[in-house]
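re: ur question from yesterday

yeah so i grabbed the chain u mentioned. its 331 aa long if i counted rite. heres the sequnce exactly as i have it in my notes:
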Amino acid sequence: MSTVNTKKDLLVGQIKQVLLLYDLGVLKNCFQLSFGYANQNYRIDTDQGSFLYRVCTQQPLPLIEYEVALMKALQQIDFPTAYPIAKKDGGFIHSLGEHYVMVYEFYNGHEPALNVHTSSAIAEAIGKLSLLPNAPRYLKKNAIHLDTCDALIAEFERAKNPIPVLLEYFKEQTNYLRPLLRQPLPEGVVHGDCFTDNTLFDGNQLVAVIDFEEACYDHLLFDVGVTINGFCFPDNQLDSVLLEAFLTAYQRQRLLTHEEWTLLFAYIQWGAHGMITWHLQNNLLHKHHHSQWQRVQELMHRVQQMRQEETQINQLITQIAKRLKNATNRE
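ran it thru and got these structure tokens back, copy pasting raw so excuse formatting
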């Protein structure tokens, strides 16, 4: 018997054992969906339907418990996501060897095209998340933080995969953003990683925002900046039409403050720079990974291009803010 078949048989046996803890029927099929840094995802089909079987390979139990508590709060506001399913005993998390397992609702969908409809749909969802009641109950520091950047910079001299152009960029951009990111802004729960691959769409209709592993309590503008990076940069260029569609839809849920409009340019950069930080955290500093390095190069170029076009982009943001303010006043 091949090693592949042995692993598949072991997985099937484990899933069958876990399903005994639920009222979800008998396993018929399972298919691997993704293998990420923090989890392994499988679609499982039973005689009662399809579900997502998630193996948490990196997250410690307190962070998984945080995510479950947050999901319960999101359910109260009918947020569009795939929710974890409770076991027969009412719990959500099952210990399986060194890892933890949860079962979620499964939704069919696809990664969206970038257009005004998908940008508007995701903006309304993120705006709804920004208004989550009792947000201070879900305090958790963002893994993407200036402190993280400084720790990585301190580690540069020990890097096993030194990339001089990246290290030079990272130091300069972190210092450029530092005073801007320290200014007080409205806070709340943020998704923290709302790129297109963490959403499911049916055509232009949003089905679900998924993967809340990076969710935390931070400046709400962080989520705005990250999601703009995910939905308003076709061909790695900021699209003014998509940006205006996004901001118009977000404002239907929550109005940005004057300070947030002023700092939006910086937070769009922070969204991209934060993702570079994530890749450095996830071992690019010490081990070359071709697809990671390609993505980081793309994000570096994006930030550098924005810096070169700072005056034009800030003028665009000011114009959008003025149009939206005038529209609100007319209403």
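noticed a couple things. The chain is about 50% helix and 15% strand. also The chain has a mean pLDDT of 95.
anyway ttyl
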